[in-house]
Amino acid sequence: MRILNVNLGNRTYPIFIEADGFEKAAKKILRQCDSKTYIIISDENVASHYYEKLTSFLEQGEAKCYLYKITPGEESKSLTTAEQIYTWMLANRFHRDDLIIALGGGVVGDLAGFIAATYLRGIRWVQIPTTLMAQVDSSVGGKVGVNHPLAKNSIGAFYQPQLVWIDPSTLKTLPCREIYNGLAEVIKYGLILDPEFFEFLEINFDKIVSLQDSELLNQIIKTCCRLKSMVVEKDERETDYRRILNFGHTIGHALENITDYRYFRHGEAVAWGMLAAAAISQKSLSLPSDQFIRIESMMLLLEKPALPIDFAADQIVQAIQSDKKMTSEGLKFVLLESIGNSRVEFVNRELIEFGVNYLLTINKKGRT
Ligand code: ADP
Ligand code: ZN
User: Taking all residues of the chain, what is their mean pLDDT, rounded to a whole number?
Assistant: First the structure.
């Protein structure tokens, strides 16, 4: 078993990584959290695969489990769903000693964490992430929340769990598209923080995607959690340093936005965004061209939908501007000096257009 601590003073928590580990997960939760009531929030897909597995080990002695299943998908990450869950919890008289377990991907984790942060002014929670995206990204750092119709992820809190249990074997039931979705964030960590890790991903890409080698997956997940926790430990509330985690996200968010959040999975849009950010880095920060070519090759390996045909450079620049404040100096943007070495810099409109136009060229090439 691999154990990693996210060191945040009195909010420090451990992340356990173990394949086929539901029995051990249950034992750990029973021992560490010692609650009589476990409130499991999951979605229909994940619950059908893993709810019984978990609760058969949890429901020992007096412990009792309750399940709230949400409809899978981003639409459930809303105040409306949150209110329905509060109502169910109040009707069941769940109290402050009870424990919430988020069993699912990022949608379940963000929503269940938000409920934990707010129900009776905060109750304890545990996260069991079941998508690659949630295992390497959203389960580290305590960002919880829901979407508002006017802005995604705009209502929320920083609220750390008691522990995170990652079972990489849950990825075997995950749709292939979701693996690529999570891999985009995996590659991001290499690009912004760790050149050796990026090289490791280049060498092992095919093996990773095949999901056959569970030791390899364990290792990758642990590296990502370690890299992300290192950033979060330095800047828990994203005042400064944590921003490097947004590499590829400015253009990525704009792409999600102009396609109404229905066309791209988050990681797919971020993969396009990282490619544009790398092109901008080459032009304005002298990212070496051999490294740029390696990034380009890696991004092309990541399966993702093409950019929509009717998409224009102007549209995306406008979407960025409506999302982020562009000052006279430009827009704060995460760029790469080299692979593994990132920096936040002001980027002007011309450079952003350059990055977007580069994407359009690549997109056209992909079609012929
Ligand atoms: P993300 O972690 O990227 O935010 P979601 O929470 O939206 O993703 O999950 C993506 C989809 O994958 C959902 O339809 C969800 O029900 C499904 N899912 C999550 N984990 C698993 C799993 N281990 N096996 C099968 N389907 C899963
Ligand atoms: Zn992201």
Answer: 93
Select which of 178, 185, 236, 268 is catalytic: 185
* 106-109 contacts at long range (C-beta below 8 A, 24 or more positions apart): 106/131, 106/133, 106/134, 106/137, 106/138, 107/43, 107/70, 107/72, 107/73, 107/74, 107/76, 107/77, 108/41, 108/42, 108/43, 108/46, 108/70, 109/134, 109/138, 109/139, 109/144
The CATH classification number of 2-173 equals: 3.40.50.1970
pLDDT in tens, 231-249: 999 988 888 888 999 999 9
The domain locations on the chain are: 2-173, 177-367
User: Residue 266 catalytic?
Assistant: yes
Closest ligand to the CA of 110: 1
Binned at pLDDT 50, 70 and 90, residue 368 comes out as: very low
More confident residue, 85 or 138: 85
CATH for the stretch 177-367: 1.20.1090.10
Label residue 40 by pLDDT band (50, 70, 90).
Answer: very high
Q: Kindly list the protein residues whose Cβ atom lies closer than 6 A to any atom of ligand 1.
A: 43, 45-46, 49, 72, 104-108, 130-131, 133-134, 170, 173-174, 178, 181
In this predicted structure, the answer to whether residue 154 has a pLDDT above a threshold of 80 is yes
What pLDDT, on a 0 to 100 scale, did the predictor assign at position 366?
64
